[in-house]
Amino acid sequence: MSIKLPCMFTVMCMFALSLTACQMLDFANLMTKPGAVLFQDDFSNPASGWTRLVSPVGIMDYDGGGYRFLVNAIDHNYWSTPGKEFRDVRIEVDSAKLAGPDENRLGVVCRYQDAQNYYFFVISSDGYYAIGKVKGGQTSLLGQEQMQYSEAIVRRGAVNHLTVECMSSALRFFVNGMPVALAQDADFLSGDVGLLAGTFDQAGVDVLFDDFMVTKP
User: What's the predicted TM-score (pTM) here?
Assistant: First the structure.
């Protein structure tokens, strides 16, 4: 008993400390008022934490006061996250195509766990949108079988303002202030936020994001 008691005491202490830490995180979350800014980036500082990559396949980097993706491979995605951890969030960002095909993917990542697990909210420059997830490396759309067309999306090279809400199991997508999609999924309840761009049958998708903001919904 003299050996087991200290071990049990240590376990109990660790459990108590873990419980206290969780309670403090929950308390901090409750004390954060709706609309409070949790994170924002206008990409004016190249050291703010986003991926900086130049390769034959493409580019992810700060450029011209924004954050740029150039994807030079067919049916390929690039994504970048700033290394944060959130639960319920509202994400807003401006996006625009600089060059390349209108049939593309550009959008927002939410509750990013790792490269194999996250939610995504994307539009294309020819007017389509989708909510989906990558789980265990497998991609699926949520609430739709394929990308759907929306008049809310300004096509081709114009700027589109994207808004994403991840609240508990509810996933909402707005484009230029108009609701375009709602889905329910509870596989991921917290994680990082980020940006994504990708190609379909044509390479050369070149897009720019600016004024990224995360607030409490």
Answer: 0.84
